[in-house]
Design brief:
Layout (H helix, E strand, L loop, with lengths): L2 E4 L6 H10 L5 E3 L10 E4 L5 H10 L3 H9 L4 E4 L1 H4 L4 E2 L13 E5 L9 E6 L1 E2 L15 E6 L1 E5 L5 E7 L2 E9 L2 E4 L7 H13 L1
Parallel strand pairs: 1-2, 1-3, 3-4, 4-13, 5-6
Antiparallel strand pairs: 6-10, 7-9, 8-11, 11-12, 12-13
Length: 203
């Protein structure tokens, strides 16, 4: 295994890298197209605004390599913004196109009876608890969230987990072949998050 970690200059890499190291893997920082060579797995940790992140990826010439990686069904884990950027667009940054590898768009929470952002622990409902990525986890595991926007996937078969917040039920994770992406932060979710990371790395 040769694990790559996308660094677009805005993400919180340290906690994700430390989680991978705790599992015995040393990530290689990816900041340019050539860094994709010889990698077997990619993690895209997310933090920041949708539009700013896409601008950074464009500046670093990472958009086409990322799309190609995903279209070739190579192992990819997207976290938070690394999840949302897979979709076509976001209300957070009108007019900015995402990677568009998953059909759907990102919306802002509109429930009036909850605090925005959605921050803290919440449980998710798994579409298929027998999936290789969710092994050794409870039926409705708790994970740590920090976000104000969430994607609506057009293809229900892509949805691996959902979550309720206020009046809204949103897509908390997607799974398609060797692609896994989560709105929550596995690296901040203690032993359940480490188990999910290990499942991805060892799948």
């Amino acid at each position: 295994m040769k694990l790559g970690m996308i660094d677009y200059g805005r993400g919180n890499l340290r906690s994700v890298m430390n989680a991978c190291r705790a599992l015995g893997h040393e990530p290689q920082i990816v900041t340019k197209r050539a860094d994709f060579e010889e990698l077997t797995h990619i993690i895209f940790p997310g933090q920041g605004a949708f539009g700013d992140c896409m601008e950074s990826l464009a500046r670093l010439d990472l958009i086409d390599p990322l799309r190609q990686w995903i279209e070739e069904d190579r192992p990819y884990l997207g976290i938070c913004v690394g999840f949302q950027l897979l979709f076509c667009s976001s209300e957070e940054s009108p007019g900015v196109a995402g990677l568009g590898v998953i059909s759907g768009d990102c919306k802002r929470f509109i429930s009036s009876n909850v605090k925005i952002p959605h921050m803290g622990w919440n449980n998710v409902q798994l579409s298929n608890s027998q999936s290789r990525y969710w092994q050794e986890l409870t039926e409705d595991p708790y994970f740590y969230f920090v976000h104000s926007f969430y994607p609506i996937a057009e293809n229900e078969s892509d949805v691996a987990a959902t979550c309720h917040y206020g009046d809204e039920r949103f897509c908390a994770a997607i799974e398609r072949g060797n692609l896994l992406a989560t709105q929550f932060h596995p690296e901040k979710s203690q032993h359940r998050g480490l188990q999910l990371l290990e499942n991805f790395l060892e799948a």
